[in-house]
# Entry
Amino acid sequence: MDRYKQGFEKLSEIDGDAGHKVIAALQDVCPDLAKYVIEFPFGDIYSRPGLDLRSREIATVAALCAMGNAIPQLKVHIHGALNVGVTETEVKEVIMQMAVYAGFPAALNGMMAAKEVFLERSKK
Amino acid sequence: MDRYKQGFEKLSEIDGDAGHKVIAALQDVCPDLAKYVIEFPFGDIYSRPGLDLRSREIATVAALCAMGNAIPQLKVHIHGALNVGVTETEVKEVIMQMAVYAGFPAALNGMMAAKEVFLERSKK
Amino acid sequence: MDRYKQGFEKLSEIDGDAGHKVIAALQDVCPDLAKYVIEFPFGDIYSRPGLDLRSREIATVAALCAMGNAIPQLKVHIHGALNVGVTETEVKEVIMQMAVYAGFPAALNGMMAAKEVFLERSKK
Amino acid sequence: MDRYKQGFEKLSEIDGDAGHKVIAALQDVCPDLAKYVIEFPFGDIYSRPGLDLRSREIATVAALCAMGNAIPQLKVHIHGALNVGVTETEVKEVIMQMAVYAGFPAALNGMMAAKEVFLERSKK
Amino acid sequence: MDRYKQGFEKLSEIDGDAGHKVIAALQDVCPDLAKYVIEFPFGDIYSRPGLDLRSREIATVAALCAMGNAIPQLKVHIHGALNVGVTETEVKEVIMQMAVYAGFPAALNGMMAAKEVFLERSKK
Amino acid sequence: MDRYKQGFEKLSEIDGDAGHKVIAALQDVCPDLAKYVIEFPFGDIYSRPGLDLRSREIATVAALCAMGNAIPQLKVHIHGALNVGVTETEVKEVIMQMAVYAGFPAALNGMMAAKEVFLERSKK
# Structure
């Protein structure tokens, strides 16, 4: 299967609607970046064996929360984590743990992002 | 059990010798910081139920690799991850995935840190 | 006095209403993180002798401004600095100085945050 | 020519209205920071020979996109880049390239900033 | 031409020996990351039309200097910039300009990296 | 008094030998950056009234420790803080406090830098 097709399926499996919206927002300004988002992160990396999707999403939520300058992407991947079987409790534990490594502001801003995602999903 | 005692046991379980060396290096310059390292991250956070230690170490390796300015701590937690059952392959997958979120330099520097840790452990 | 009680008093003394709002916003999503915010930063760190509160708030405003990804927390601690006796002029000097260490964008965004806090306080 | 005068002319040449708005927003809260913005970045640095303005703006767009915590300044300098002859295609290439060095979230957030700037300019 | 082959040629053209050493250092620990470094940054991004190589290297030197946590990669790309026609003076101008956006420490550490690269090349 | 002369005196007063070494290391590769280091940070900012030097150095140590990618500059300013009357205990309190805002790795790496500076000074 080619990288684009495999990537699009993986993106849909993990991030669902939240992922499709990111791709749509890029289409008019830079469709090639949309293509790369699908091909490299999802077609190459998330499609690899060697680490289960649940662990991959835990790693991504941790990293984006710690970096602190990627709140929109953190929200997409909190959706992603929940979509592949991470529980809300586990998401909160990962974010709380980031207080240790990236400081309390990173954890607080990450928790507020999680709160929004949980609320959004509870409405559906 | 008090936070310090519980924290010290958790630190020993996870980080082993690499963790003890961090504590020892702090003792002469600032023993209170050593105490806090044991009490808050290990006594409070890593001792919580709600997320297994394996997932906690995956989260920490991801965050420290993505942040890119904490190589000594990344090495300690690559040891920690391996100590609690994460495989070398899984550590490499987590680090490789950080190329997506924090860029290739973060992944490359993280992989070089992993290479050193793997080599050190293979000598024992 | 226990860490929680001491921390809550310190939080109230320093950050006042702005601090209470942070705690309230966490209560429904993750009350344990609210507890840790009170216990470690305020119960352990800000309660230590060895550095006066005025200097502690100068350090925090400097750090949050330099990090650049924690604007909500920067605003809380500009309130905090003013509450413990740092003057508006001194807050502005700290933020301006961050242009040297973290670049002009960090200083500009920090100054806009200060402008909002000053305005909010002048209305009361 | 003195640094302030030379800096103001350079700021006007590069950033135009977007630059003047930054200066205006600082005037009531901290006019000295406005003065330094004009004198050091524009009076000293951008006025130097040795690197053409086009290359300087490419460097600035790259850096601000990679840092990820300076979106307002990134927008000002996307205007700046376009004002000194960088094309929209080139701006997009620089931002896309940042996916390699600072990760996809930095590139995505940078591209959304570029989209807003392009739209704003197309309306005039 | 396939992505790997095109990427390897581009890597060789831009980074030369310094790039080959990075690939070699990855081969025993994680050859797949070496493959991705060749395919995505060099096969996809640097091979794109729309921005000349000289501008691409100026953007990369700026970003890596501003990020401040990727000194080994900064050195590789100072070599790269010089290899594709950026002058030593221009490299220094880009780095000096980063004092404005990322602060003086980033510019100072970047300049020390440049000093080492210039010295190394002058010996050959 | 002109900015350069005033800056050099301020640099000498605050950072002493450690500051002079920074300037010397820049002279052969980029004397203009050395000039700017003296003129803007020291001639303009540290020479301002409105905040005492002790508070300025507390702010700088906090920021550089929190940023985590400027260890050489952190060491220079730990010297600077001690030179203008901040005590070793106060330096340690500032660094320990950064665990709250930038995470434990930043505080640990900052404390190791302080340990080296204290040792170096105790030998004289």
Summary: Chain C has a mean pLDDT of 97. The radius of gyration of chain C is 14 Å.
